[in-house]
Amino acid sequence: MATETLLAPYLRALVELRGSDLHCKAGSSPRVRIDGRLLQLDAPPLKPDVMRQMLAEIIRPDLAEEFERTHEADFAYSLPMNGGRFRVNAYRQRGSIGIVARRVAAQAIPLSALGVPPVLNRLALENRGLLLVTGPTGSGKTTTLAGLIDHINQVRESNIVTIEDPIEVLHSDKMSMISQREVRLDTADFSTALRAAMRQDPDVILVGEMRDQETVKAALSAAETGHFVMSTLHTIDAAETISRIIDFFPPHEQNQIRLMLAGALRGIVCQRLVPRADGEGRCVVMEICVNTGRIADAISDPQKTSTITDLIKEGGYYEMQTFDQHLVSLIRDGVVTLEDAVEVASNPQDLGVELRRQGIIS
Hints:
Blueprint lengths: L7 H9 L4 E5 L5 E4 L2 E4 L7 H11 L2 H10 L1 E8 L4 E10 L2 E9 L6 H4 L4 H6 L4 E6 L6 H15 L3 E6 L12 E6 L7 H8 L6 E4 L5 H12 L3 E6 L4 H10 L3 H14 E11 L6 E9 L2 H8 L7 H6 L9 H10 L5 H7 L3 H10 L5
Parallel strand pairs: 7-11, 7-12, 8-9, 8-10, 10-11
Antiparallel strand pairs: 1-2, 1-6, 2-3, 4-5, 5-6, 12-13
Helix pairs in contact: 7-8, 8-10, 9-10, 10-11, 13-15
């Protein structure tokens, strides 16, 4: 029987407490993040030599060499006997090792169980184009993307290629065939894997994150040539997402990128997490942008890009919604409290005005 790793008891505590992240570093007791709050475990401070051994027990040999050179490493790790799956980041601070492990779902959670707007079911089944899921770190982008892939896998015969760093949620073939490629393990980088994917007869390509100009351009080209591409960005709303993509490129290329994006984009799903009123964890709040003719016009024309948020607000017929519109419905239904909603609202003052207009608050 294999000896238990030094990290395992803390990872099990993370799972039992239903936390999202485990933080371990020399000189401090381990801490876990639960519903956004960072709480200290009842454990002694970790010593530098313990941290070195902790990392050595769980890191792949090739990444161990890379860590010695770069002092950074990202990889996936699973506890045995279905104990949980985690995305791990190892780093150095003040000369010693630190580890942050994020708990991820071992299997995809269906969209129906995630409490997301029904429009995501339709967006997931687009035949071609680009769908972006955005939000800050820890907002559940990976979970939403896994749900979208699972929905395709349940209802459509497709060849799905995912490019991830690292692979977090594991998918098994159902109606679709899914190939999951991990950067540095199965391929050199995102852009190399994207170019190779074009020769793998894909229907759907998932790019874990669009980090640079080359990856963005390759994703847009794949979306333009008849493939359905999904990816993520660390942006707070749809308008910022459009601006961020355009800003990847030098000024002389930006008009071309605007036209490519206006033609290829199918939708942008931006998300944040807010505590539930019943205390049972957090629920997702989403801004949904569907690429209608008016949205495409606003993307292609720099003078109109600033109108995107207003177009979303007026786009209820196309199942669009802003963050604050979604928050209004969650407050009305008693899912979240007014106080917590104000903390994540895009415009707390406008949120209050709309709640008064609907008679939800006085």
